[in-house]
Hints:
Elements: H1 3-26, H2 35-55, H3 69-82, H4 87-96
Amino acid sequence: MSPSEEAAKLSALLVELRGQMERTTEAGELARVRREDVTNLLSGAVKLYAAAAEEAESELPAIDGTVSTTEAMVVACALLRAHRLNPFDLALWFSRTAPAPRGDAGA
């Protein structure tokens, strides 16, 4: 497969996966999903997002509005703990990765 075919295949799989995750959650079947599978999915998604952010010439779109504040913070805290980071470390990285201010650069 060509790289563009691989990307199209991944996009189609991601659409199907998101739908399956929603159906499984709505059916109350989360207890039957192995924790290792959830961890692997999140790790893969984080790596994909980070690689896309590094490769993008412009800023990636923000996470969509379907992710609640609580869900975002649960994941953020899990990622920080996985790397033994603390809120101070987060503040340093947050300032490092902040988007450039928009507006007139010459003013």
